[in-house]
């Protein structure tokens, strides 16, 4: 498909002029169109797999210029080839089977069961990259993976971000295949979870900013409030549609995990204002996203939203989500928490245990009621 045809299918003439001047992916498209009569996936696979190439591939698939491929094939396979080529031979020799027989294998099995998600490629790339970083760090200490100790692992974890805990998967695989001793990494979200909770005073200060600071972009205020109040992660936030927002005589509800949640008045006004910004239909065949993306028919990129929450509002999603879930678990039994927010039953049980609440008396009281109780607490914004 010609460059002109692709651009006309996506943008208005003023938008085309702007993007041809300033968008890196349009420059890539122009160069590929000049060099090849028909652009193929292989031409994109040969380029460094950065965000510009990934965006261009999405554009070409969306416009019909390229046939669709799986997310893993598009976003991981070419990246892995380039990534391994930049590693030391011994590191690449270990990462290659780990990627093929552990990370990618499990990701493809999940996709075959319909459990694939837009975050799957990032999940794969992160685990492979963290493994490479750990081995590079060991090399600076003249230590091989086979002789590394628990002290090495603990020191490496303490010197970096929580992303380093993703090394747990690689170390388990390495031990199972005889490349390392039995090394332990405490999984985030279980033991040690309380160390990753946002302080309550900080949480409420950030929430006040989201609800009342008009100088902050509205989409960040809405997303930040959903993280801080309900522990809703950006991957799920961007999948909300305007149809999930409903209003009746009792108030405004936002459907989370298939269950309407009563919003506090200040947040209800905020979300309603935000939804009205995108009230005009953009594409009859696409969902009416509450957080529409730059590409027609697509929602906002969750990774970009996470980054902006951090850099522009100071909201780190993991500790903010942890504080919200712990707060909710103190007021809701784990089965209700799991159903309301779409978290697993085991995760809800862990949060309830962390909140140190015993719901045995609650269950006993509920079995003697003729009708289920309604929990309508403005501080939590929940309704059952």
Summarize the structure.
This protein has helices spanning 3-10, 13-22, 24-35, 41-45, 51-62, 71-75, 77-85, 89-112, 120-140, 150-158, 167-176, 200-212, 218-230, 234-237, 265-277, 302-313, 317-329, 334-341, 345-354, 360-367, and strands spanning 245-248, 251-256, 259-262. With 384 residues, it is mostly helical. A 3-stranded antiparallel β-sheet has the order 1-2-3, with helices on one face.
Q: Which features would summarize this protein structure in a list?
A:
mainly alpha; 3-stranded antiparallel beta sheet; 4% strand
Question: What would your notes on this structure say?
Answer:
- With 384 residues, the chain is mainly α.
- It is built from 20 helices and three strands.
- A three-stranded antiparallel beta sheet has the order 1-2-3, covered by helices on one side.
- β2 and β3 form a beta hairpin.
- It is globular and about 65 Å long.
- The termini are far apart.
Fraction of residues in β-strands: under 5%
Low-confidence stretches: 190-194, 357-384
Question: SSE string, helix = H, strand = E?
Answer: HHHHHHHHHHHHHHEEEHHHHHH
Strand sequence of the main sheet, in spatial order?
A: 1-2-3
Q: What gross morphology would you assign?
A: globular
Counted by DSSP, the helix tally is 20
Distance between the termini: 52 Å
- Mean of all residue-level pLDDT scores: 77
Extended strand count: 3
Main pleated sheet: 3 strands, antiparallel
The whole-angstrom Rg is 24 Å
What percent of the residues sit in helical stretches (DSSP H or I)?
55-70%
Q: How does the helix and strand content classify structurally?
A: mainly alpha
